[in-house]
């Protein structure tokens, strides 16, 4: 029986780092950008193009005509392909999936621990500057804009609301410490 951890997170909360720590402690495979890369491969597009499309909701054009057939917009194709890949991974093996919509995509699966990692805006801005090494004029404004993109994407592709507590089994502030948060997730996973 596969047991899955899905991790959604606010930008700069350290969710990806925490996911890797949990994967190391539990000996699980951890998927993040690999899902996007698999979607790119399946759709036959450049990885950079697909990564950009995977972060933005559809443009609003329902379908386009290409070669005499109707096609979904690329963003919608990417979401559908990622959903298929996530469901396949969850069906076949225990793993950790860091993807903003994985909690929704797997909502009908048993044995899924759905985690949302958050932190105060000042902590996240500091992490983006100091740990991620990104360069921005205004870190708080940048972090807020990245969260807004995640929120728009999630709210567009799901029937849930991004960051809503009831979507998750565990919501936790990463300011408690990345190792400490990883330990809490590990304990919760063992109770699945």
UniProtKB/TrEMBL annotation:
Q: Which domain of life is it from?
A: Bacteria
Q: Which Gene3D superfamilies match?
A: P-loop containing nucleotide triphosphate hydrolases
Q: What is this protein called?
A: Cytidylate kinase
Q: Which organism is it from?
A: Kandleria vitulina DSM 20405
Biological classification of the source: Bacteria, Bacillati, Bacillota, Erysipelotrichia, Erysipelotrichales
């Amino acid at each position: 029986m596969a047991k899955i951890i899905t991790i959604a997170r606010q930008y700069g909360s350290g969710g990806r780092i925490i996911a890797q720590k949990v994967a190391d402690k539990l000996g699980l495979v951890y998927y993040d950008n690999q899902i996007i890369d698999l979607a790119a491969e399946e759709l036959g597009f450049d990885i950079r193009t697909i990564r950009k499309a995977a972060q933005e909701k559809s443009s609003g054009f329902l379908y386009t005509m290409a070669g005499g057939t109707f096609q979904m917009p690329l963003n919608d194709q990417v979401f559908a392909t990622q959903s298929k890949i996530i469901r396949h991974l969850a069906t076949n093996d225990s793993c950790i999936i860091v993807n903003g919509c994985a909690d929704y995509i797997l909502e009908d699966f048993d044995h899924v621990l759905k985690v949302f990692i958050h932190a105060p805006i000042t902590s996240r801005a500091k992490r983006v500057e100091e740990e991620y090494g990104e360069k921005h004029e205004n870190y708080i404004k940048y972090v807020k804009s990245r969260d807004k993109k995640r929120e728009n994407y999630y709210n567009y592709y799901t029937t849930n609301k991004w960051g809503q507590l009831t979507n998750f089994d565990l919501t936790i502030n990463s300011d408690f410490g990345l190792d400490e948060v990883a330990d809490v997730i590990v304990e919760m996973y063992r109770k699945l």
